[in-house]
Protein backbone atom coordinates (compact mmCIF):
# COMPACT_ATOMS: atom_id res chain seq x y z
CA UNK A 1 0.00 0.00 0.00
CA UNK A 2 1.44 3.36 -1.00
CA UNK A 3 1.83 5.77 1.89
CA UNK A 4 -0.15 8.92 1.32
CA UNK A 5 2.76 11.37 1.53
CA UNK A 6 4.96 9.07 -0.49
CA UNK A 7 2.76 9.48 -3.53
CA UNK A 8 4.82 11.54 -6.01
CA UNK A 9 2.10 14.18 -6.46
CA UNK A 10 2.00 14.87 -2.73
CA UNK A 11 4.89 17.28 -2.17
CA UNK A 12 4.58 19.42 0.94
CA UNK A 13 3.19 22.47 -0.96
CA UNK A 14 0.61 20.11 -2.46
CA UNK A 15 -0.30 18.84 1.01
CA UNK A 16 -0.78 22.41 2.24
CA UNK A 17 -3.04 23.15 -0.71
CA UNK A 18 -5.11 20.00 -0.15
CA UNK A 19 -5.49 20.75 3.53
CA UNK A 20 -6.49 24.36 2.87
CA UNK A 21 -9.09 23.05 0.42
CA UNK A 22 -10.55 20.15 2.37
CA UNK A 23 -9.74 20.44 6.07
CA UNK A 24 -13.07 21.90 7.16
CA UNK A 25 -14.76 21.12 10.46
CA UNK A 26 -16.94 18.17 9.62
CA UNK A 27 -18.96 15.42 11.32
CA UNK A 28 -17.41 11.97 11.69
CA UNK A 29 -20.65 10.48 10.34
CA UNK A 30 -21.14 7.90 13.06
CA UNK A 31 -24.81 8.57 12.29
CA UNK A 32 -26.84 10.45 9.71
CA UNK A 33 -28.45 12.80 10.54
CA UNK A 34 -25.66 13.60 13.01
CA UNK A 35 -26.20 14.25 16.74
CA UNK A 36 -26.43 18.10 16.47
CA UNK A 37 -29.66 17.49 14.49
CA UNK A 38 -31.33 15.62 17.35
CA UNK A 39 -34.21 17.53 19.01
CA UNK A 40 -36.51 17.06 22.01
CA UNK A 41 -39.34 16.20 19.57
CA UNK A 42 -38.19 12.59 20.02
CA UNK A 43 -38.49 11.80 23.73
CA UNK A 44 -39.33 8.88 25.99
CA UNK A 45 -42.83 8.21 24.63
CA UNK A 46 -41.67 8.13 21.00
CA UNK A 47 -38.81 5.81 22.03
CA UNK A 48 -41.24 3.47 23.83
CA UNK A 49 -43.33 3.25 20.66
CA UNK A 50 -40.25 2.46 18.55
CA UNK A 51 -39.07 -0.20 21.02
CA UNK A 52 -42.44 -1.93 20.99
CA UNK A 53 -42.31 -2.15 17.18
CA UNK A 54 -38.88 -3.85 16.99
CA UNK A 55 -38.94 -6.84 14.67
CA UNK A 56 -39.01 -10.17 16.52
CA UNK A 57 -36.46 -11.86 14.27
CA UNK A 58 -33.71 -9.24 14.06
CA UNK A 59 -30.88 -9.41 16.62
CA UNK A 60 -30.03 -6.35 18.68
CA UNK A 61 -26.77 -4.65 19.47
CA UNK A 62 -26.42 -3.15 22.96
CA UNK A 63 -24.28 -0.20 24.13
CA UNK A 64 -23.63 0.67 27.78
CA UNK A 65 -22.10 4.01 28.68
CA UNK A 66 -20.22 4.56 31.95
CA UNK A 67 -19.48 8.30 32.31
CA UNK A 68 -16.80 8.01 35.01
CA UNK A 69 -13.01 8.08 35.12
CA UNK A 70 -10.40 8.13 37.90
CA UNK A 71 -8.77 11.18 36.30
CA UNK A 72 -9.42 13.55 33.43
CA UNK A 73 -6.97 13.42 30.51
CA UNK A 74 -6.60 16.96 29.14
CA UNK A 75 -7.36 15.96 25.53
CA UNK A 76 -10.45 13.93 26.40
CA UNK A 77 -13.47 14.48 24.17
CA UNK A 78 -15.60 11.73 25.69
CA UNK A 79 -18.68 12.18 27.86
CA UNK A 80 -17.17 11.57 31.28
CA UNK A 81 -16.23 13.15 34.61
CA UNK A 82 -13.98 12.26 37.51
CA UNK A 83 -15.98 10.12 39.94
CA UNK A 84 -14.06 7.86 42.30
CA UNK A 85 -16.67 7.25 45.01
CA UNK A 86 -17.68 3.62 45.13
CA UNK A 87 -21.16 4.58 46.36
CA UNK A 88 -21.69 6.58 43.14
CA UNK A 89 -20.50 3.63 41.03
CA UNK A 90 -22.91 1.28 42.83
CA UNK A 91 -25.75 3.76 42.50
CA UNK A 92 -25.11 4.07 38.75
CA UNK A 93 -25.08 0.27 38.43
CA UNK A 94 -28.52 0.13 40.07
CA UNK A 95 -29.76 2.70 37.53
CA UNK A 96 -28.43 0.64 34.63
CA UNK A 97 -30.20 -2.45 36.00
CA UNK A 98 -33.50 -0.51 36.24
CA UNK A 99 -33.10 0.84 32.73
CA UNK A 100 -32.39 -2.64 31.32
CA UNK A 101 -35.53 -3.98 33.02
CA UNK A 102 -37.63 -1.07 31.79
CA UNK A 103 -36.45 -1.33 28.17
CA UNK A 104 -36.93 -5.13 28.15
CA UNK A 105 -40.47 -4.74 29.49
CA UNK A 106 -41.35 -2.21 26.80
CA UNK A 107 -39.96 -4.52 24.10
CA UNK A 108 -42.14 -7.21 25.63
CA UNK A 109 -40.08 -10.26 24.72
CA UNK A 110 -36.57 -11.64 25.16
CA UNK A 111 -34.89 -10.41 21.96
CA UNK A 112 -31.73 -11.90 20.47
CA UNK A 113 -28.47 -10.03 21.01
CA UNK A 114 -25.40 -10.29 18.77
CA UNK A 115 -23.12 -7.61 20.16
CA UNK A 116 -22.51 -5.72 23.41
CA UNK A 117 -20.18 -2.74 23.73
CA UNK A 118 -19.18 -1.12 27.03
CA UNK A 119 -17.88 2.41 26.46
CA UNK A 120 -17.16 5.53 28.40
CA UNK A 121 -15.52 7.19 30.14
CA UNK A 122 -13.94 4.14 31.62
CA UNK A 123 -16.40 1.26 32.04
CA UNK A 124 -14.03 -0.49 34.47
CA UNK A 125 -14.60 2.39 36.88
CA UNK A 126 -17.47 0.18 38.05
CA UNK A 127 -16.50 -2.50 40.61
CA UNK A 128 -16.08 -6.03 39.22
CA UNK A 129 -19.23 -7.37 40.88
CA UNK A 130 -21.24 -4.50 39.36
CA UNK A 131 -19.93 -5.21 35.85
CA UNK A 132 -20.88 -8.87 36.27
CA UNK A 133 -24.31 -7.99 37.70
CA UNK A 134 -25.13 -5.81 34.67
CA UNK A 135 -24.01 -8.53 32.24
CA UNK A 136 -26.04 -11.13 34.15
CA UNK A 137 -29.12 -8.92 33.96
CA UNK A 138 -28.61 -8.43 30.22
CA UNK A 139 -28.36 -12.20 29.74
CA UNK A 140 -31.55 -12.68 31.74
CA UNK A 141 -33.48 -10.11 29.70
CA UNK A 142 -31.95 -10.79 26.26
CA UNK A 143 -31.12 -14.03 24.42
CA UNK A 144 -27.39 -13.82 23.67
CA UNK A 145 -26.19 -15.50 20.46
CA UNK A 146 -23.59 -18.19 21.16
CA UNK A 147 -20.97 -16.18 19.27
CA UNK A 148 -22.11 -12.79 20.63
CA UNK A 149 -19.27 -10.28 20.84
CA UNK A 150 -18.78 -8.52 24.18
CA UNK A 151 -16.36 -5.60 23.88
CA UNK A 152 -15.13 -3.25 26.60
CA UNK A 153 -12.96 -0.13 26.61
CA UNK A 154 -10.18 -0.22 29.20
CA UNK A 155 -7.75 2.38 30.53
CA UNK A 156 -4.58 0.30 31.10
CA UNK A 157 -3.44 2.60 33.92
CA UNK A 158 -6.41 1.74 36.11
CA UNK A 159 -7.52 -1.87 36.02
CA UNK A 160 -7.78 -3.09 39.62
CA UNK A 161 -7.79 -6.86 40.23
CA UNK A 162 -11.56 -7.18 40.71
CA UNK A 163 -12.26 -5.44 37.37
CA UNK A 164 -9.67 -7.56 35.56
CA UNK A 165 -11.04 -10.74 37.09
CA UNK A 166 -14.58 -9.74 36.04
CA UNK A 167 -13.66 -9.87 32.33
CA UNK A 168 -13.95 -13.70 32.26
CA UNK A 169 -17.36 -14.01 33.99
CA UNK A 170 -18.65 -11.11 31.88
CA UNK A 171 -17.85 -13.11 28.75
CA UNK A 172 -15.66 -10.35 27.27
CA UNK A 173 -14.39 -11.30 23.80
CA UNK A 174 -12.67 -8.05 22.82
CA UNK A 175 -10.89 -5.36 24.79
CA UNK A 176 -10.01 -1.93 23.55
CA UNK A 177 -7.02 -0.31 25.26
CA UNK A 178 -6.45 3.44 25.21
CA UNK A 179 -2.77 4.00 24.35
CA UNK A 180 -2.80 7.41 22.58
CA UNK A 181 0.97 8.11 22.65
CA UNK A 182 3.91 6.52 24.44
CA UNK A 183 6.34 9.49 24.39
CA UNK A 184 6.86 10.85 27.95
CA UNK A 185 6.89 14.52 26.83
CA UNK A 186 3.53 14.10 25.09
CA UNK A 187 2.10 12.16 28.04
CA UNK A 188 3.06 15.01 30.37
CA UNK A 189 1.43 17.54 28.01
CA UNK A 190 -1.84 15.59 27.95
CA UNK A 191 -1.88 14.69 31.65
CA UNK A 192 -1.79 10.96 31.06
CA UNK A 193 1.30 9.09 32.20
CA UNK A 194 1.14 5.50 30.93
CA UNK A 195 4.13 3.22 30.47
CA UNK A 196 4.46 0.68 27.70
CA UNK A 197 4.81 -2.00 30.39
CA UNK A 198 1.46 -1.07 31.99
CA UNK A 199 -0.21 -1.36 28.62
CA UNK A 200 1.50 -4.66 27.79
CA UNK A 201 0.64 -6.14 31.20
CA UNK A 202 -3.00 -5.28 30.67
CA UNK A 203 -3.05 -6.83 27.18
CA UNK A 204 -1.34 -10.01 28.42
CA UNK A 205 -3.68 -10.33 31.41
CA UNK A 206 -6.72 -10.07 29.16
CA UNK A 207 -5.33 -12.66 26.76
CA UNK A 208 -4.61 -14.98 29.71
CA UNK A 209 -8.26 -14.64 30.73
CA UNK A 210 -9.31 -15.85 27.30
CA UNK A 211 -10.16 -12.50 25.71
CA UNK A 212 -9.58 -13.35 22.04
CA UNK A 213 -9.30 -9.96 20.43
CA UNK A 214 -7.35 -6.79 21.17
CA UNK A 215 -7.88 -3.26 19.87
CA UNK A 216 -5.59 -0.28 20.55
CA UNK A 217 -6.42 3.42 20.28
CA UNK A 218 -3.71 5.82 19.10
CA UNK A 219 -4.06 9.58 18.59
CA UNK A 220 -2.13 11.99 16.36
CA UNK A 221 -2.28 15.80 16.50
CA UNK A 222 -1.73 15.89 20.28
CA UNK A 223 0.43 18.62 21.88
CA UNK A 224 4.18 18.18 21.32
CA UNK A 225 3.71 15.18 19.02
CA UNK A 226 6.16 14.86 16.14
CA UNK A 227 6.28 12.66 13.08
CA UNK A 228 9.20 10.66 14.54
CA UNK A 229 7.49 10.35 17.93
CA UNK A 230 4.20 8.98 16.62
CA UNK A 231 6.10 6.53 14.41
CA UNK A 232 7.98 5.31 17.53
CA UNK A 233 4.66 4.87 19.37
CA UNK A 234 3.16 2.97 16.43
CA UNK A 235 6.26 0.74 16.25
CA UNK A 236 6.03 -0.14 19.93
CA UNK A 237 2.30 -0.75 19.53
CA UNK A 238 3.15 -3.41 16.91
CA UNK A 239 4.78 -5.45 19.70
CA UNK A 240 1.40 -5.69 21.44
CA UNK A 241 0.11 -7.74 18.49
CA UNK A 242 -3.28 -6.07 18.39
CA UNK A 243 -5.87 -7.33 15.93
CA UNK A 244 -7.06 -3.79 15.28
CA UNK A 245 -5.66 -0.30 15.79
CA UNK A 246 -7.82 2.82 15.75
CA UNK A 247 -5.92 5.98 14.80
CA UNK A 248 -7.84 9.11 15.76
CA UNK A 249 -6.97 12.69 14.88
CA UNK A 250 -7.02 14.73 18.08
CA UNK A 251 -10.33 16.62 18.15
CA UNK A 252 -9.58 19.94 19.83
CA UNK A 253 -12.97 21.40 20.69
CA UNK A 254 -12.37 23.58 23.80
CA UNK A 255 -15.70 25.38 23.25
CA UNK A 256 -17.37 22.03 24.04
CA UNK A 257 -14.76 20.41 26.33
CA UNK A 258 -13.53 23.22 28.56
CA UNK A 259 -10.63 21.24 30.09
CA UNK A 260 -9.03 21.08 26.61
CA UNK A 261 -8.38 24.83 26.98
CA UNK A 262 -5.60 23.80 29.41
CA UNK A 263 -3.65 22.55 26.39
CA UNK A 264 -1.64 25.54 25.06
CA UNK A 265 -2.64 25.95 21.41
CA UNK A 266 0.96 26.72 20.44
CA UNK A 267 1.89 23.15 21.44
CA UNK A 268 -0.58 21.70 18.93
CA UNK A 269 0.76 20.52 15.58
CA UNK A 270 -0.69 22.43 12.62
CA UNK A 271 -2.74 20.76 9.86
CA UNK A 272 0.29 19.90 7.70
CA UNK A 273 2.09 18.30 10.65
CA UNK A 274 -1.08 16.39 11.59
CA UNK A 275 -1.22 15.05 8.05
CA UNK A 276 2.45 14.02 8.19
CA UNK A 277 1.87 12.29 11.57
CA UNK A 278 -1.11 10.37 10.24
CA UNK A 279 0.99 9.28 7.31
CA UNK A 280 3.89 8.22 9.55
CA UNK A 281 1.56 6.00 11.61
CA UNK A 282 -0.04 4.70 8.43
CA UNK A 283 3.38 3.70 7.06
CA UNK A 284 4.43 1.84 10.21
CA UNK A 285 1.14 -0.01 10.56
CA UNK A 286 0.81 -1.01 6.92
CA UNK A 287 4.43 -1.51 5.81
CA UNK A 288 5.96 -2.84 9.03
CA UNK A 289 2.91 -4.28 10.75
CA UNK A 290 1.00 -5.76 7.80
CA UNK A 291 -2.26 -4.04 8.80
CA UNK A 292 -4.78 -3.03 6.16
CA UNK A 293 -6.42 0.38 6.42
CA UNK A 294 -10.15 0.28 7.08
CA UNK A 295 -12.31 3.33 6.39
CA UNK A 296 -11.24 6.65 7.82
CA UNK A 297 -9.35 5.69 10.95
CA UNK A 298 -8.99 1.95 11.51
CA UNK A 299 -6.31 -0.61 10.74
CA UNK A 300 -6.87 -4.37 11.02
CA UNK A 301 -4.83 -7.50 10.46
CA UNK A 302 -5.98 -9.16 7.22
CA UNK A 303 -7.17 -12.18 9.27
CA UNK A 304 -9.37 -10.00 11.50
CA UNK A 305 -13.15 -9.90 11.02
CA UNK A 306 -13.06 -6.13 10.43
CA UNK A 307 -10.61 -6.41 7.52
CA UNK A 308 -12.70 -9.25 6.07
CA UNK A 309 -15.96 -7.28 6.46
CA UNK A 310 -14.34 -4.27 4.78
CA UNK A 311 -13.10 -6.39 1.86
CA UNK A 312 -16.59 -7.90 1.45
CA UNK A 313 -18.25 -4.45 1.65
CA UNK A 314 -20.10 -5.54 4.80
CA UNK A 315 -18.59 -3.00 7.19
CA UNK A 316 -21.02 -0.77 9.11
CA UNK A 317 -20.63 2.62 10.76
CA UNK A 318 -22.17 3.13 14.19
CA UNK A 319 -21.71 5.35 17.24
CA UNK A 320 -18.75 3.20 18.25
CA UNK A 321 -17.10 3.91 14.89
CA UNK A 322 -16.57 1.03 12.49
CA UNK A 323 -18.20 -2.28 13.33
CA UNK A 324 -18.75 -5.70 11.80
CA UNK A 325 -22.06 -5.93 13.62
CA UNK A 326 -24.98 -5.98 11.22
CA UNK A 327 -27.79 -5.80 13.81
CA UNK A 328 -30.46 -3.42 12.50
CA UNK A 329 -31.04 -1.85 15.93
CA UNK A 330 -28.72 -0.59 18.66
CA UNK A 331 -30.12 -0.03 22.14
CA UNK A 332 -28.17 2.41 24.33
CA UNK A 333 -28.09 2.28 28.13
CA UNK A 334 -26.63 4.85 30.51
CA UNK A 335 -26.12 8.61 30.53
CA UNK A 336 -25.72 10.21 27.07
CA UNK A 337 -25.93 6.86 25.26
CA UNK A 338 -27.31 6.93 21.74
CA UNK A 339 -29.61 4.29 20.28
CA UNK A 340 -30.27 3.63 16.63
CA UNK A 341 -33.60 2.04 15.71
CA UNK A 342 -35.17 1.45 12.32
CA UNK A 343 -37.35 4.53 12.88
CA UNK A 344 -34.55 6.89 13.97
CA UNK A 345 -32.05 7.86 16.65
CA UNK A 346 -32.55 8.48 20.38
CA UNK A 347 -30.25 9.87 23.05
CA UNK A 348 -30.42 9.58 26.83
CA UNK A 349 -30.06 12.48 29.26
CA UNK A 350 -26.42 13.64 28.93
CA UNK A 351 -25.19 13.84 32.53
CA UNK A 352 -25.21 11.15 35.21
CA UNK A 353 -27.42 13.41 37.40
CA UNK A 354 -30.01 14.11 34.69
CA UNK A 355 -30.03 10.42 33.73
CA UNK A 356 -30.53 9.39 37.37
CA UNK A 357 -33.48 11.78 37.70
CA UNK A 358 -35.32 10.13 34.79
CA UNK A 359 -34.59 6.53 35.76
CA UNK A 360 -35.41 7.10 39.44
CA UNK A 361 -38.75 8.58 38.37
CA UNK A 362 -39.48 5.31 36.54
CA UNK A 363 -39.15 6.88 33.08
CA UNK A 364 -37.05 6.01 30.04
CA UNK A 365 -34.17 8.51 29.98
CA UNK A 366 -34.55 9.61 26.32
CA UNK A 367 -34.32 13.39 25.97
CA UNK A 368 -33.74 13.92 22.26
CA UNK A 369 -33.49 12.20 18.93
CA UNK A 370 -34.54 12.34 15.32
CA UNK A 371 -37.05 10.40 13.23
CA UNK A 372 -35.67 9.44 9.83
CA UNK A 373 -37.30 10.70 6.65
CA UNK A 374 -37.08 8.72 3.38
CA UNK A 375 -34.46 11.24 2.19
CA UNK A 376 -32.42 10.75 5.40
CA UNK A 377 -32.42 6.97 4.87
CA UNK A 378 -31.24 7.32 1.27
CA UNK A 379 -28.45 9.77 2.13
CA UNK A 380 -27.50 7.76 5.22
CA UNK A 381 -26.83 4.70 3.06
CA UNK A 382 -24.72 6.68 0.59
CA UNK A 383 -22.73 8.29 3.43
CA UNK A 384 -22.24 4.96 5.23
CA UNK A 385 -20.90 3.27 2.08
CA UNK A 386 -18.53 6.20 1.38
CA UNK A 387 -17.25 6.14 4.99
CA UNK A 388 -16.89 2.31 5.04
CA UNK A 389 -15.95 1.32 1.46
CA UNK A 390 -14.59 4.59 0.09
CA UNK A 391 -16.88 3.97 -2.84
CA UNK A 392 -20.55 3.86 -3.64
CA UNK A 393 -22.81 3.21 -6.59
CA UNK A 394 -25.36 5.98 -6.03
CA UNK A 395 -27.74 4.64 -8.69
CA UNK A 396 -27.81 1.22 -7.00
CA UNK A 397 -28.48 2.82 -3.60
CA UNK A 398 -31.26 4.97 -5.08
CA UNK A 399 -32.77 1.86 -6.73
CA UNK A 400 -32.76 -0.01 -3.38
CA UNK A 401 -34.69 2.91 -1.89
CA UNK A 402 -36.98 3.20 -4.93
CA UNK A 403 -35.84 6.81 -5.03
CA UNK A 404 -34.94 9.30 -7.74
CA UNK A 405 -31.12 9.27 -8.12
CA UNK A 406 -31.12 12.86 -9.47
CA UNK A 407 -30.54 14.63 -6.09
CA UNK A 408 -27.60 12.30 -5.42
CA UNK A 409 -26.13 12.92 -8.86
CA UNK A 410 -26.64 16.63 -8.22
CA UNK A 411 -24.72 16.35 -4.91
CA UNK A 412 -21.98 14.42 -6.69
CA UNK A 413 -21.34 17.50 -8.87
CA UNK A 414 -19.46 18.77 -5.81
CA UNK A 415 -16.86 16.09 -6.53
CA UNK A 416 -15.30 18.13 -9.32
CA UNK A 417 -12.51 19.60 -7.19
CA UNK A 418 -11.83 16.18 -5.60
CA UNK A 419 -11.45 14.72 -9.09
CA UNK A 420 -9.06 17.52 -10.15
CA UNK A 421 -6.95 16.80 -7.06
CA UNK A 422 -6.89 13.03 -7.65
CA UNK A 423 -8.86 12.35 -4.47
CA UNK A 424 -11.91 10.74 -6.08
CA UNK A 425 -13.46 9.64 -9.34
CA UNK A 426 -17.05 9.73 -10.61
CA UNK A 427 -18.38 7.95 -13.70
CA UNK A 428 -21.93 9.23 -13.51
CA UNK A 429 -23.14 6.54 -11.09
CA UNK A 430 -20.18 5.34 -9.02
CA UNK A 431 -17.97 7.40 -6.71
CA UNK A 432 -14.59 6.00 -5.73
CA UNK A 433 -12.35 7.77 -3.22
CA UNK A 434 -8.66 7.16 -4.00
CA UNK A 435 -6.03 6.12 -1.45
CA UNK A 436 -4.79 9.72 -1.56
CA UNK A 437 -8.34 10.83 -0.74
CA UNK A 438 -8.77 8.52 2.28
CA UNK A 439 -7.91 11.19 4.90
CA UNK A 440 -10.51 13.47 3.28
CA UNK A 441 -13.34 10.93 3.08
CA UNK A 442 -15.46 12.96 5.52
CA UNK A 443 -15.39 15.82 3.01
CA UNK A 444 -16.73 13.48 0.29
CA UNK A 445 -19.45 12.14 2.61
CA UNK A 446 -20.40 15.73 3.54
CA UNK A 447 -21.45 16.40 -0.08
CA UNK A 448 -24.49 14.20 0.59
CA UNK A 449 -25.33 15.71 3.98
CA UNK A 450 -28.51 17.74 3.46
CA UNK A 451 -28.49 18.96 7.09
CA UNK A 452 -24.97 20.42 7.16
CA UNK A 453 -25.94 23.74 5.58
CA UNK A 454 -28.68 24.19 8.23
CA UNK A 455 -25.99 24.13 10.96
CA UNK A 456 -24.51 27.43 9.70
CA UNK A 457 -20.97 28.43 10.61
CA UNK A 458 -21.02 27.33 14.25
CA UNK A 459 -17.75 25.44 14.92
CA UNK A 460 -19.36 22.23 16.20
CA UNK A 461 -17.08 19.60 14.73
CA UNK A 462 -13.39 18.75 14.74
CA UNK A 463 -10.92 19.06 11.87
CA UNK A 464 -11.48 16.69 8.93
CA UNK A 465 -7.80 15.66 8.92
C1 LIG B 1 -13.56 6.24 26.15
S1 LIG B 1 -11.92 6.40 25.68
C2 LIG B 1 -11.11 4.82 25.94
C3 LIG B 1 -11.12 4.12 27.25
C4 LIG B 1 -10.36 4.69 28.41
N1 LIG B 1 -11.15 5.71 29.03
C5 LIG B 1 -8.99 5.20 28.09
O1 LIG B 1 -8.84 6.40 27.96
O2 LIG B 1 -8.07 4.41 27.96
C6 LIG B 1 -12.07 6.20 23.93
C7 LIG B 1 -10.96 6.72 23.05
O3 LIG B 1 -11.35 7.96 22.49
C8 LIG B 1 -10.19 8.60 22.02
N2 LIG B 1 -10.31 10.04 22.32
C9 LIG B 1 -10.67 10.59 23.48
N3 LIG B 1 -10.68 11.94 23.36
C10 LIG B 1 -10.32 12.22 22.09
C11 LIG B 1 -10.16 13.43 21.35
N4 LIG B 1 -10.37 14.63 21.89
N5 LIG B 1 -9.80 13.33 20.06
C12 LIG B 1 -9.60 12.14 19.48
N6 LIG B 1 -9.73 10.97 20.13
C13 LIG B 1 -10.09 11.01 21.41
C14 LIG B 1 -9.00 7.99 22.72
O4 LIG B 1 -8.20 7.32 21.75
C15 LIG B 1 -9.64 7.02 23.69
O5 LIG B 1 -8.87 5.85 23.85
S1 LIG C 1 -9.37 9.46 27.65
FE1 LIG C 1 -10.34 7.78 28.75
S2 LIG C 1 -9.41 7.85 30.83
FE2 LIG C 1 -8.94 9.78 29.86
S3 LIG C 1 -10.59 11.12 30.59
FE3 LIG C 1 -11.19 10.34 28.56
S4 LIG C 1 -12.43 8.57 28.97
FE4 LIG C 1 -11.30 9.05 30.87
Query: What structural class is derived from the secondary structure elements?
Result: alpha/beta
The percent range for strand residues is 15-25%
Radius of gyration: 22 Å
Report the CATH C-level class of the largest domain.
Alpha Beta
| Strand order in the largest sheet | 10-11-9-8-7-6-5-2-14
Shape: globular
Helix content: 25-40%
Number of helices: 16
Quick recap:
By secondary structure, this protein is an alpha/beta fold. The chain has helices spanning 12-22, 44-52, 86-107, 128-141, 161-170, 184-190, 196-208, 227-238, 271-288, 305-311, 352-360, 374-389, 394-400, 406-412, 416-420, 441-446; strands at residues 25-26, 60-66, 68-69, 81-82, 112-120, 143-154, 174-180, 213-220, 244-249, 292-294, 298-300, 316-318, 321-323, 329-333, 338-341, 344-348, 366-371, 391-393, 424-426, 430-433, 462-463.
